[in-house]
Structure formats: structure tokens, C-alpha cells
Amino acid sequence: GNQIFWGIFISNVSFFIFLLLIFKTLSKKYSKKIGFNVYVTYLLFPTAFFTTAYYSESLFLLLAFASIYTIDNKKYLLSSIFISLSSLTRLAGSLLIVSFFYKYFSSNRGKASIDKKIIYPILSACGILFYAFYLFMNAGNPLQFSSVQTLWGREVVDPISTIISYIWTFLFELKNQIDYLDFLLTVSFLVILFLGIRKISPQLWIFSTLAILIPASSGTLTSMPRYLLTSIGAFIIIGIYLEEKPFLKKPFWAISLTLQTI
Description:
Elements: H1 3-29, H2 32-44, H3 57-72, H4 76-89, H5 96-107, H6 119-123, H7 126-139, H8 144-147, H9 159-172, H10 177-195, H11 202-213, H12 224-227, H13 232-244, H14 249-261
Helix pairs in contact: 1-2, 1-3, 2-13, 2-14, 3-4, 3-5, 4-7, 5-11, 10-11, 10-13
């Protein structure tokens, strides 16, 4: 009966488990230092406070990372379950379906026929399909999650146009300070993903990039610093770069924590 308490409880527990899993996984795949770098970067990121608030970020991070981990390890049944659950948590979870299909077809490259495991990537779409059916039964519109965005002045445009529109207004208009942060972090993460494309798995890179481009396709970069938390691959690339250039750790983390405090 106490939604606020349980919402905050679920967020904190989910984020705690997510941090443990990502540290353990990256320590095994790369090194403990890189795992620690990603761990600390997540904690100090300017919008990390959302992970302990009554928001879906933490639960989604946990389910999305579990999805990517099981995809990488070809545990396809678990992948379809985690992707379906992540799709019910956040619309961005449906982007994992693209990564799942990429992994499946790249793993079966050169084979003459498609095997029965193709059913698992298809099953991973059950989450978003179920949600669309739920919206249809309750609101009469299976795409209500998209049309409702107009209440925030959002519309579907390509992400490049959104970014260019911000540059244009910066040149000729005075913008709110938060708009500069939205723009700077969004572009920085896209650059990081572009430069570090070979440092992470293709399926993780696809999801992490789409997790930025899709929200940026709404005509505004408002709330992008929060949405960037779901770009797990970008955080891993940052952790790798910080280990390659260790003198950047303290300045980077200090700036990040200062912005979070502000």
C-alpha cells in the first residue's frame, strides 16, 4: 500500500544488483580496474540520482544488462525473457530485439538454413506486443506510448535534425543552461560510441547507440542526460578509456560529481 516506499526500494536494490553484475562481468571480460572504472562512473554520473529515485531507470538497467549478457553468451531463452521484461519496463527495451536478431544471424552466418532457435528472438518481442495490446484494450490505441509524447511537445524527427536545431538556436538565441548540458552530453556520448565501436560487442554497441538516437528523434534533447544512463556500452567504453589514460580519472569523476551535486 506504500507505492513511494516500494518504488524507491526496488530502484535502489535493482541499481545495487546492476552495479555488482556489471563489475563482476567486466572484471572477468576485461579487468577489475576497468570494472571498477565503470562502477564509479555510473555512481558519479550527473544524473545517477535517478537510479535511486522513484523512476524505472534502475530496474531497466538491470534487465537490459541481463539481456545483453545472455545474448553474448547465447543463452537465447533467457535473453527472450529478459528482453520481454525490459520492454515492459521501458520502451527502450524493445531496442534489444534488434541486438538479439543481429547476434542470432551473425552467429548463423554461412549456414544454409535458419535453425529453430530463431523462435527466441521472435519471442523477445512478446513484451512490447503485450504492452501494445494492453494499451489497445485500455486506451483504444496500441501506440498510445508514442502519441502521448505530444503532451511534452515531442514529435518524430530524425536525430540529426534535432542536434542541428540545437546548434542553430545556440548561435542565435539564449538557451536555458540545462539545454547546453543536454546537448553536450548527448553529442559526447555519440562521439564516445563512434570512437569506441571496436571496444565492445556489436550487439551492445547497437543497443547503446539506439538508446540515444531514438529519444533524440523526438525533436528535443530534454531529459537526454537521464536517458543516457541506459547507454551501457558508452559507460564501458569510458571505463576502458579511463584505464588507458589514468590521469583523467580524478578530473573526470570530480567534474561528474560536481554536476550531479548541482
